[in-house]
Write a structure and sequence with these properties.
By secondary structure, the chain is of the alpha+beta class. About 35% of the residues lie in helices and about 20% in strands. The chain has three helices and six strands, in the order ααββββββα. The strands form three sheets. Strands 1-6 form a two-stranded antiparallel sheet. It has a two-stranded antiparallel sheet with strand order 2-3. α1 runs antiparallel to α2. The mean pLDDT is about 90.
Length: about 70
């Protein structure tokens, strides 16, 4: 069997995410942590000064991917 890569949290939000994955009572706190966190969105600055965010389709819905740190984006 193939082993899954280990996700090592690099900040408090990622630690909260890992805890929420295995501890359902922590999930409301994770969503509070997510709302309070700085996250990185991927997009492009247009020549007219406007910005467009990168999107993706997920189960027929538009989603805006975001990253929890610059290292995750890279």
């Amino acid at each position: 069997p193939r082993s899954r890569p280990v996700f090592e949290p690099t900040n408090e939000l990622e630690q909260s995410l890992l805890r929420a994955a295995s501890d359902p009572p922590h999930r409301p706190q994770f969503f509070r942590d997510l709302r309070a966190a700085d996250v990185i969105l991927s997009g492009q600055l247009e020549s007219d000064g406007s910005a467009s965010l990168r999107t993706m389709s997920l189960e027929g819905r538009t989603a805006y991917p975001f990253f929890t740190s610059l290292a995750r984006l890279e």
